[in-house]
Design brief:
Layout: H1 6-15, E1 20-26, H2 32-42, E2 54-58, H3 69-80, H4 87-97, E3 102-105, H5 108-114, H6 116-126, E4 130-132, H7 142-151, E5 154-156, E6 158-159, H8 165-174, E7 179-182, H9 197-208, E8 214-217, H10 223-230, E9 235-238, H11 240-251, H12 259-272
Parallel strand pairs: 1-2, 1-9, 2-3, 3-4, 4-5, 6-7, 7-8, 8-9
Length: 274
Amino acid sequence: MSVTSSGAAITAARASGRAALIGYLPVGFPSVAGSLAALATLCGADGSSDGVDLVEIGLPYSDPVMDGPVIQRAGTRALARGVRTADVFAAVEAVRAAGKPAVVMTYWNLVDRYGVEAFARDLANAGGAGLITPDLIPDEADDWMAASDTYGLDRIFLVSPSSTDDRITMTAQAARGWLYATAVMGVTGTRASSSDLAPRLVERIRTTAPGMPIGVGLGVSNGDQAAEIGSFADAVIVGSALIKPLLAADDAGTPDDLSGLRTVVAELAEGVRR
């Protein structure tokens, strides 16, 4: 199976008249095997929904300073249950087997410890499209720029409402695939309403970096918000809202119950298609 770049998945959704849906789940929660099943459900492999267009696979980290409480809880449990960095490549293979492209979202220290060249090689061999690096800025990414060029991987950097126009331009020039626009300041997590900073940030990106696909994340929790953000962004990114039903099932002693996840995925998929 040929690798579909993450940017191409977003562009294809836009060509069909809607925003792409990007879903985040961590590898290793509720277990490594359980996370592979959850990722397949996220992709719509069980036929319960159309699923997401692109998957972000999270790599749990012991010091997740940018993650909100939901992602932290899931990541902490995954680490306690023995997840390892190498498990992310099996997760990428599972997503590709379900017919969707995958990117890995990770703190840079994990890649650095694994070996930048080795991580890029193994990610490409697993069929991964690229990396989202929330704590790595282009100014400090020489090793990653070289490795991603060698293995043809997308590099997705973040911009925020506090980014200057010059910073947005420079980041977009360094990126490949798409740009991750954080719609709110602070850590990840669902919110009752979407940020009014998001449309303005997207408008600034379109002015300073025309043609670059833009995904908006941090805070999307339901289909209405997905529809709202999809009206002005190229992709809607969802994480905590997808993890919450998995945490609830784990807390209830039924970690293999994916019914709650199916419900959320179906609602979000309907939202971007309105």
